[in-house]
From TrEMBL:
The keyword Manganese applies. This is L-rhamnose isomerase. Residues 82-266 form the Xylose isomerase-like TIM barrel domain. It is an enzyme of class 5 (isomerase). Signal peptide: none annotated. One of its GO terms (molecular function) is L-rhamnose isomerase activity. NCBIfam families: RhaI_grampos. Its EC number is 5.3.1.14. The keyword Manganese applies. It comes from Cohnella soli. InterPro entries: L-rhamnose_isomerase, Rhamnose_iso-rel, Xyl_isomerase-like_sf, Xyl_isomerase-like_TIM-brl. Keywords: Isomerase, Manganese, Metal-binding.
Length: 400
């Protein structure tokens, strides 16, 4: 049945001039990083529901993430969040990850949980608090060196709630000062990925409110600083794929935090709300991967695809699997765009022809392709079902 479906799919794509060997190779090399915090209990400001099955320690989070990798074959690394994942030995944590067949990925400092950060962390008017926040960032660089991580994902909750509450220009200077110290501590193979967000937890002004400010900071710091696009961190109606294309062309797109949103920073399962946006993001990335400038192509190759979701009602491992499969699906669809057809329509200024060349790839059912690749890689054809029927789910069920 699968063979027949794939044969039909192949025939159809071949007739369109799509080289499925290239598509297959690209799909097989897609790596998506899962977040440790997506495997622990999390919630909203209203309540954290405890279902008794979520991972309780950084070690268990890595085990759950490794199970997602075992089933999907495309999640070889796990981002950590400090101090949520604080442990007495990061070397031990690293070995634990490696023994499970995964690596520790980006290190995420946390500047939003200590009482002292109420009025800001690196942009607090109190120099001692700024020092403490910067020291935490430096501690995370040191942790990254121990875990073998190359990326530090930086998100700052800093901002103000009322006009006049803070000196916006002074805070801008303090932010740069802190980041310069962090940048100076990196080894040449490390990066800082700067994440922006348009509001929350601050409701009047946010120090790093958008991609333009993150981009400007990255430019001031140097080539090892790039922008991290969290898909949930934009005002409604923002054209995220445009931002992606712009940053790629400037060689400043470092990575993603994928998640879905309907309203604000909802942190829902990736692709659950607007899968077409995800597809269009991948279209821009794939288009840039064929850019004449090797620096742009190199930027594409180094993109860190990370998931940042934290669910308060869904079972964690299944939610992570769903997100990963949704990312894979949209990537597969974007790989079916005939970019020559798009280019031809663009050069003829054929508006609807160009739109059609992009959209029609989205409309293909790529499940025969994904199943065929899973079969080739020795993976379960239906990772979600395999999880539900497997012994790991039973083991998780005994937690509590
Ligand atoms: C902030 O909303 C954020 O997107 C940052 O990436 C944090 O590290 C993460 O969420 C915490 O869940
Ligand atoms: Mn994020
Ligand atoms: Mn967020």
């Amino acid at each position: 049945m699968t063979d027949k479906a794939y044969a039909l799919f192949e025939e159809r794509q071949r007739a369109r001039g799509i080289d499925l060997n290239v598509v297959r190779e690209k799909l097989k090399s897609l790596a998506i990083e899962t977040p440790s915090w997506g495997f622990g209990d999390s919630g909203t400001r209203f309540k954290v529901f405890r279902n008794g099955k979520a991972a309780r320690t950084p070690y268990e989070k890595l085990e759950d993430a490794a199970e997602v990798h075992r089933l999907t074959g495309c999640c070889p690394s796990v981002a950590i969040h400090i101090p949520w994942d604080k442990t007495d030995s990061y070397g031990k944590l690293r070995s634990h990850a490696e023994s499970l067949g995964v690596k520790i990925g980006a290190v995420n400092p946390n500047l939003f949980q200590e009482e002292e950060y109420m009025l800001g962390s690196v942009t607090n008017a109190n120099a001692a608090i700024r020092r403490k926040a910067t020291d935490h960032l430096l501690e995370c660089v040191a942790i990254a060196k121990e875990t073998g991580s190359k990326d530090l994902s930086l998100w700052f909750p800093d901002g103000t709630n009322y006009p006049g509450q803070g000196d916006i220009r002074a805070r801008k200077v303090w932010m740069l000062e802190a980041l310069k110290e962090v940048y100076a501590a990196l080894t040449p193979d490390m990066r800082v990925l700067i994440e922006y967000k348009f509001f929350e937890p601050a409701f009047y002004h946010t120090d790093l409110v958008d991609w333009g400010m993150a981009f400007q900071l990255a430019n001031k710091l140097g080539p090892q600083a790039q922008v991290l696009v969290d898909t949930g961190h934009h005002a409604p109606c923002t054209n995220v794929e445009h931002i992606v294309a712009y940053l790629l062309d400037e060689c400043r797109l470092g990575g993603f935090h994928f998640n879905s949103r309907k309203y604000a920073d909802d942190d829902l399962i990736v692709g659950a709300i607007n899968p077409y946006e995800l597809f269009l993001i991948f279209y821009q990335i794939l288009d840039a991967s064929a850019d004449a400038d090797p620096a742009v192509r190199g930027t594409v190759d180094a993109i860190a695809y990370m998931i940042d979701q934290s669910h308060n009602i869904e079972p964690k491992i299944e939610a992570a699997i769903r997100s990963v499969l949704n990312v894979q699906t949209q990537y597969a669809k974007a790989l079916l765009i005939d970019r020559e057809e798009v280019r031809a329509a663009q050069s003829e200024q054929d508006v609807l022809g160009a739109e059609d060349a992009v959209r029609k790839a989205f409309e293909f059912d790529v499940s025969p392709l994904l199943e065929s690749i899973r079969e080739e890689m020795g993976l379960p054809l239906d990772p979600m079902r395999a999880y539900k029927e497997g012994s790991y789910a039973e083991r998780v069920g005994r937690r509590g």
